[in-house]
Structures are given as structure tokens and as C-alpha cells.
Queue: 2 jobs
Job 1
Amino acid sequence: MGAGHRNILIAGAGATGLAAAIELARRGFRPRIIDSDVGPVPLSESRALGINARTLTLLSPSRAADAIQQEAYRIDRFRVRAGKKVLFEIDPSKIDGRFPAIQVLAQGRTERLLLGKLSDYEVEPEWQTVLESVTGTMDRPHVTLRRADGSREEIDLDILIGADGAHSIVRKAAGIGFPGEEIEEAFYLADYRYPQPIDPRYVEISLFNPGIVGRIPVSGDSVRYLSTLPDFESRIAHPVPGGELVWAANFRIHFRHVARMSKGNVFLAGDAAHIHSPAGARGMNLGIEDACWLAYLISEGREQDYADLRMPAVKTVLKQTYGLTRLVTMHHPVATGLRNFFAPLLIRVPGFARRFLRSVAGYDTPPPVWIDGAQ
Ligand SMILES: Cc1cc2nc3c(=O)[nH]c(=O)nc-3n(C[C@H](O)[C@H](O)[C@H](O)COP(=O)(O)OP(=O)(O)OC[C@H]3O[C@@H](n4cnc5c(N)ncnc54)[C@H](O)[C@@H]3O)c2cc1C
């Protein structure tokens, strides 16, 4: 059977679903990709900002990485401070390989660039199309789609990819649980646009007792402030006056992952399979990695290996983000004092900064075996 003859549906055209569609299409498959929304995430409501080196490696064969590299902002300083004192600074571009450990691009732009690449392969998402139900056996899933005009379509599939986010219908229909925990602290974010250019090349985390305020560039004139403190806006050091608040949100952090990322020929990828805190900027990157591995395994006829191959990577990333989250949400003054004392010492321990940067780069999960020389 030729590659294009397998009937594949991708539910969800977020970053994960789009990456799956690109990687399948460039290998000769003709997947359908649907999304309940009217289009990609609005530019002003971009959750993910950090794109790591592993993602750019994975998106190199399709050249989507080139498009992202052209627009992304290079970060040359990651700074952690406590009050006026700089605890340490690290340069994310000081890592072996083709790409800096991390760059910044608003998720809305990343998704639009992925959409552009997908249309080069003549695949377009079907917007305003909801995956309503999944029935039949999970070996040969039968799905019902509903369009905006109310019309319905029933299809039998060879493969169903659930890239439909944290509340995944696919996951629920497959009867796969989503165990984990919600942590006590809420996180708050505020994106400001300024009337003059700002310096987009550095990320800064300011530690308070307790709490943090993170400063992450969104673009050449916009900054995101991310905090664990409800009153954090009074602690923002705006780079220039006249900033306009363009997006504010607060959210609670969950650490959850499925026990198994597939059932029969139903596969879960991205937030449908795992969610965690934004500390470390890993969520979207991990979803894109799932998608690229799944497409590769489908092309090799080895998709039944997907769940076993991906789970160690998911566990590694959840463990890393959990540790980082606990570091920034510490309350006890003794604990925060010890953290602030040891952080600058630890970063000078030989090999520590390199290991830290490799995990920021996403190089702490198995490299893609289909890309020559990938780390
Ligand atoms: C504040 C914040 C900051 C973050 N920063 C980073 C970062 O810097 N780097 C990083 O890598 N990650 C980051 N993340 C995480 C990242 O945003 C998510 O991991 C990522 O969006 C997951 O992508 P996805 O495609 O798997 O899911 P989603 O982006 O949730 O996409 C799922 C898609 O499925 C569609 N859908 C849902 N149900 C159906 C249905 N029944 N039928 C059809 N379509 C459906 C939805 O409309 C949606 O388009 C951050 C998250 C937050 C909250």
C-alpha cells in the first residue's frame, strides 16, 4: 500500500497537529487535519514563546526551521537576580551545534509559519470542524465530524492522531486517564506593548521572598511578565513609559501525563498527552517532538513503538519542569535564602551550566534517529 493510501486524521491544528501534518506530508502521506477553532491562535494570546534547539532540528528537513529562525529573537542573556543583585547570567547561544539553546517567537507566529509550510505540501486544515465522537474499535476508529453549518461526516480511519489539547476528546474516547496533580500556586501573566523598541535579547527572572517576576521578550516592542504574585504589576520595571497591556491571564499549573500515549491505532501527542508548568519553556516543544516521532514511526510502519519510545522523554521533561517550578514557587525564607545562596555557586560548578543549557535546548531526550548528526 502506498504511503498516501492510509486514512489518517489529525484532530487539532495547534503546533503539535501542524507539525504532525507537515512531517507526514513531506513523506508522501495525505493526512486530513481538522480544528474546531476559526484559525490559528490569535497573535496577542500566544502562550508559548520559547523555541528550543531540538525543535529547530526536528523542523529542519521540512525547512520550517528556516522560516522560524528568520523571525525568532536570539536570546544572548538569561539572567537571574534577587533584588538588585545578579545571581548569575548565562548565554543560551553558548552551546554546541547549529542552533542556540532557545530563541523566542510568539506561538501565534510559529503556528502561522507552520501553516505556511503545510500549504507548500498542499494540505490545509479544515477549520471550524469539530471531532464530535470516536466510536468503533480503537484499532479501526470511526469518527464523527461536525462543521460550522451543522453538517456531519462519518469516517473510518487507519490512524487517528489526537493533538486536541489538554481537554482532548480523543483521549477521553479512548478511555485513557490523565492522572497527576494541580499545584497550589496560581501563575499570572501580562503582555505589554511599548511605543518604542525594547531589548528583545534577554530573559530575566527576579526572585522575591516569596515569588518571582519573569521578563520574557515577545517581540521587538513587547514584553511578557510572568509571576507567582497576584500584585506583581507593581514590581514590573517597565523599559520605557507608555506600555499598553495587550493580554493578561492567570492560570493554575497541572502536572499530568497519560500512562500510555496510544491505544490500537489512536495516538496522543502534545498537551493531549502531557501538561506541565511553563517553567523551562518545554510544552509546545515537547508536543512538536511527539508529532515528529509519530510521523517518522508511521512512515516506517512502526507506529506501535510510539508509546514506549516517547514515554521516557515525557517523564524527563515533567521531572525537569516540576523541579524548576518548585524552585520558583518556594515560600519558606530559609529555603529561598539557601536557593539564592547556592544558585550562583552551582552555575560555576564545571559541567553544570552545560547540562542546564542542554536541557533548555531539549537535548535531554533521545535524538531524532532519522536526522543525520542530530544531538
Ligand atoms: C503561559 C504559558 C506559557 C507557555 N510557554 C511555553 C514556551 O515558552 N514554550 C513551550 O514549548 N511551551 C510553552 N507553553 C505550553 C504550550 O503553549 C502548549 O504546550 C502548546 O500550545 C500545546 O500545543 P498542542 O498543539 O498540543 O495543543 P493546543 O495548542 O491546545 O492545540 C490543540 C488544538 O486542538 C483543537 N481542538 C480541541 N478540541 C478539538 C476537537 N474536539 N475537534 C477539533 N479540534 C479540537 C483546539 O482548537 C486547538 O487548536 C506555555 C503555556 C502557557 C500556559
Job 2
Amino acid sequence: MVGDVVTEGDVDPVGAGSTLPDPFELAARWLPEPDSGTTPLMTLSTIGLDGYPAARTVLLSRFDGRRLHFHTDRASSKAAELAATPRAAVTILWPERSRQLVVTGDVTTVTGLEARLAYTARTRYLQVLAWLNDHELAELGPGERRARWAAFTQSHGDDELEPPPGWVGYAIDPVRLAFWSGATDAPSNRLLYERAGDGRWNVRRRAG
Ligand SMILES: Cc1cc2nc3c(=O)[nH]c(=O)nc-3n(C[C@H](O)[C@H](O)[C@H](O)COP(=O)(O)O)c2cc1C
């Protein structure tokens, strides 16, 4: 536990008792169980090669108790950006729960085995997409794109698919986590955790 006492009158965004939890405990409460098969959407922000931020939506493949995993194509812009600067932020929104989690951290690639397991866990549509979705196909007309999709799915039938050669997984190791909670009868509020040089976490409550 992080030893910061919640003061009376605070909006308690975590629904916890009198002390603030470790950030990974809290993340585990907010995020799906590792093998639940639930994959929330995240806005993944990287540092563009031109210095501007680059943002797009990806699925959270897995939270392993510390790191957040996502998967993509090695030929994508985000892969090139992460090779140049292995740092990223992800923003996950639960509008129905009035919650937002922003995690910023250092990015590494995951093992081949882990990437394979994540591929197997994806829906058939997403497995096929990972094989077909390249820039060459994107430039074809809609009829030709459909025909290529049909040809691929027909030729593979119900066969188990291997991940394509460019399939790659990344994991963000957090240096900062911001848990935002909104309310209709109280101000929104954040719990901001920042990793100190000694590896311990500083935690502050901030306005939402
Ligand atoms: C709902 C949704 C989920 C997506 N999930 C992923 C994903 O898990 N991995 C991925 O590479 N792209 C995913 N995409 C596509 C990306 O948003 C993006 O367009 C693509 O990866 C190319 O990004 P880049 O050129 O910035 O690398 C998703 C898009 C949407 C709308």
C-alpha cells in the first residue's frame, strides 16, 4: 500500500478504504482479468518521427499485473515510432463508469510466444485482418479488396492460422498512471502515481 491517507470529504475514485492502493492493484481492479478475453480500446500515443504526437486506437491485449500489452504490424508507423523512441501513453475511457485511465511508460517488445498467444486469442476476423491489411491492399478498389478477403478465407477454410511474419507485441511498463473519476454530484478527481528514481511510487490527488 502507498501510505497516503484519504482525507475526509475526498471523492474516493477507487471505492477503497482509508489508504491508497498500490497503482498496479488499482489498475487490476479497473482493467479486465489477464485471461478474460476482454479487450478494451485504448488511444495509443507515440512520438511521431516528425516530432508531433501520433495517436490511434488499439486493443489492450492484456494487462499482466504491471504492463499493458498491445499488438500490431511491424511495418506500421507506430512500430517505426517506437523503434525510434520506445515511450508511449495509452488512454482508456469507460464513459459508462465515468472513468479514464492514462498510463505513460517505457515500451519493449514481448516474446514471440506471448505474441503468438495473443494472436490465437484474437477473433477470426482480426486474425485474417492481420494477414491482409497492408498498404498495397488498401490502394485497391472495394470490390478487389473483398475478392482478396474471400480468396484468403476460402483457401484457409477453418484451418488454424499462424500469426503473420509482421505480427508483433509491445508492452508498456508504466512510469506514470492517472486514474480519473467523474461524478455528477462532485468534482472530478484524479489519483496520479509517478514512479520515483528508487522505484517507489509518489501519489497525489489532482483536480480532474
Ligand atoms: C476499434 C479499433 C481497434 C483497433 N485495434 C488495433 C490494434 O489492436 N492494433 C493495431 O495495430 N491497429 C488497430 N486499429 C487500427 C489503428 O487505429 C491504426 O489505424 C493502425 O494500426 C495504423 O496505425 P499507425 O499507422 O499509426 O501505426 C484499431 C482501430 C480501431 C478503430
